[in-house]
Amino acid sequence: MKALYFRDTGSLANLRVENVEVPRIDTPDEALVQVRAAAINPSDPKSVLGKISETKPPRVPGRDFAGVVVEGSATWKGKEVFGTGGSLGFGRNGSHAEFVSVPVEALVEKPKQLSFEQAATLGLAYLTAWSAIVTAGRVSPNDIVLVLGATGAVGSAAVKIAKHIGAKRVIGVLRKEADRARTAGIPSDDWLVLEKEPLPQGLFEITQGKGADLILDMIGGSSFESVTQCLAHRGRHVVIASIEPRVSFSLVDFYHREARLIGVDTLKLSFSESAEVLREIVPLVNAGVLTPPELDSIAIEQGPRAYQAVLEGSAGRKQVIRF
Predict the structure, then answer these.
(1) What is the pLDDT of residue 118?
(2) Quick one: which of 27, 111, 25, 31 has its CA closest to 75?
């Protein structure tokens, strides 16, 4: 079968399209999925670069998949499914291939109205957003929610989830005015443009000095302190990524706010835990409340170039490999 494959980490030049063996199903607890579409996430190129400790090369990368079960449990055989999570793409071969083997507990039925490409974009984006906003952040109807990176797959998913749960106000953050062109379909109540309204001042102006009860942060780095200063009294700052590993902030200011700093790492979720979250979102997808992001459908031969674009943040739309 065709697959993206790397034998060593350290450079995206190590990622190539190769012919590898189709996975074997040796136990009734496993299923073989013919992959029809697989999304590329930022953690995929990071894995190839050796920045994720769980990665064990040689490896087929890829965390998200959508396809048809062709071998395994009779209950699932022939069903259209999607999924993500566990060690997929890191400790076991992933979804950027024509076939992938996964535990049966990882399987979730694909929303019928979505294409395979659209379903492939849901997995990690909504798993991360739900884990951050709902499970860790405990968003409530009284909350003002601030979402950094709100036009990305995870950020836009977080905005939609927060709005569905009934947060009082959801505010998305844009780096520059030109990014406003990417806000269509994202139901944020307000947009803050950092080049015109830097944090925390910009947020305090539109919240009459209150700040945010819940912040989703996927930037970290040098902006971490200004983001933390946006917290309201007893606010929750949920971090899912950071451009730089080390940050600095005023601990005195932080404890006087009685604030909470919470880390979320979806790599720690099992296949079963990931599938449980996805089953929570499926009815909301079927109802049209939660929607997939805009995507580019690409051939596997374009995969290495798409990895580079995703790493650089220049892809624009979700990159999805079709098979």
Answers:
(1) 98
(2) 31
